[in-house]
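Lecture notes, structural biology module. Today: joint structure prediction for complexes of two components.
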Amino acid sequence: MHSNRYCNRIIVLPFSVLLEIRVKPDNSGVVTDGVKHSMNPFCEIAVEEAVKLKEKKLIKEVVAVSCGPQQSQETIRTALAMGADRGIHVEVAGKDYETLGPLQVSKIMAALAKKEDAQLIILGKQAIDDDCNQTGQMTAALLDWPQGTFASEVSLDGDKVKVVREIDGGLETIKISTPAVLTADLRLNTPRYATLPNIMKAKKKKIANVKPADLGVDLTSRLEVLKVEEPPQRQAGVKVETVEDLVGKLKETGRI
Amino acid sequence: LTSYLSLQISRPWGTCQAAWRCSSSRAAPDVASDHAAASSFPPLQTYSEEESMMREAVKKYAQERIAPFVSKMDENSEMDEEVIKSLFEQGLMGIEIDPEYGGTGSTFFSSILVIEELAKVDPSVAVLCDIQNTLINTLFVQLGTPAQKEQYLSRLSTDMVGSFCLSEAESGSDAFALKTRAEKHKDYYIINGSKMWISNAEHAGVFLVMANVDPSAGYRGITCFIVDRDTEGLEICKKENKLGLRASSTCPLNFDNVKVPEKNILGKVGHGYKYAIGMLNEGRIGIAAQMVGLAQGCFDHTVPYTRQRVQFGKRIFDFQGMQHQIAHVATQIEAARLLTYNAARLKEAGRPFIKEACMAKYFTSEVATLTTSKCIEWMGGVGFTKDYPIEKYYRDCKIGTIYEGTTNVQLSTMAKFIDKEYDY
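The predicted structure, tokenised, for the full assembly:
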């Protein structure tokens, strides 16, 4: 039996998001060609938390995993420059990448967590492009691990993790056993910049390449995107002089 | 390195380049990015992964940690200590210094990219970084004895700013007419004289002073001395009240019987003039990068305004007159950038680069002047106020045509090269 076992390995899952959103002319999705990617802000916070735990010597190794095409390697390198020890690039390209959603990613994460014998998985709570907020929770369910989501404070205590969660009503503090899945919220920490020396060191860190098939994961999507539209253009407003005018206008446009 | 090797397996055409990249961590001139197709002559704006990452990191850092201080630093004519500290923390002050001495261990081109990014936010901060990297650090790395490197390089990369002291009140462009004297006694020298226009002086911990040990030998007596800040007799006088680059301290220095041990000579006695010219040839490219960044930063602040401001029922950007001017300036900035990058890559490749460096410095400073002037016009009345950052860029750019070799000096140097090219 384990008592007072310290965590050995954390997997973080930094995702890259588009910096500029434009809907494709055929409304089938968002333009991705040639658009700049950058690490999802919540994922930066997740990576930072993992690196901090390693600096406190509470865990031994941080592994950064990213699923996607070649460009995902940049995201992994950024995580390495922030302090992760090694990276795993799960190659998903082309059509598969377009339909890659939280369910597929969590299957990949679950498979990797078992393969790498991780004690903690830390993800950003959601990606700012699709706002799904599902991957962390699904991964925990697939692994049957406890989850601490929307974390604004994380502390390790032997083989348990104390998580302060930001919920609608305020803050909730829970204690969960490891292995566990955590998702990072905005106030968990302030991510460090990759300093130039660390960027240089990151060049020497290893990134392994893996295919989803090697992990036994089926990437078929259960969802079909029917249409993607921009939100309606904001119409100009109308100024009114008096309250009577206001009420009149509201009635006129059928608002009341 | 493993990741590069795995790239080799998936893309056999890249084997030569990938293997070559593996064997030397110092970036070679035409390093292709991972996405460059089978072309072995990638465009000038092609960066190694490390260069791209550095540029992104510095961009973010500059926006978050420098931008908030820019206006105040300009008004008070004072560089914020926190800014200087964070420059060191980010590894920006020892870019080419070996990690053995706490440096970043990267390349000259990386320095150029860093200076450009910093200059987009504050040209004063960029020049502090430029002087440290392209003048001070390079001199120590190339000329320092093991003892000197041991003593100074790790400080230069972690917490100590350096200053380069060549100009005097009576000798600017005519640098070798300098009068500061160093008299030899046994195993030390006594330095007397004054220097002027010394950047970074307010915060520098070490000064590289060009003094003449033998005026009868003319410029062949000029020697480079390492003078620590707290040396008795060294006086750092009140900084100049400048038009632009105000946050960068520019001070006169007085040397009153300053005693400097012989071991503090950098390089060889009487070779100082060579070192000065050599360093300034490279420093020129750094200044070019600063001017490109300045122009781009100013431009980036201005175009959004022209897209928002509506007059006569349309965006001022939509007037043909405006579009033509804007496109013209954008072209000049692009050309300036390419001249700068090419000069930097030539230098890294060990190929002759002096003429190109002069061209880069000359052209970019002219472009910066044009760009900032036009930007104020495009902004209209608000461009003329201090509430907007444009007027600062306009004031900052002017020094570009003056320092580290005036435009006239650059042109004359270029002409000498051109003349030689037609000798047969």
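Point to remember: Confidence is low (pLDDT under 50) at residues 1-36 of chain B.
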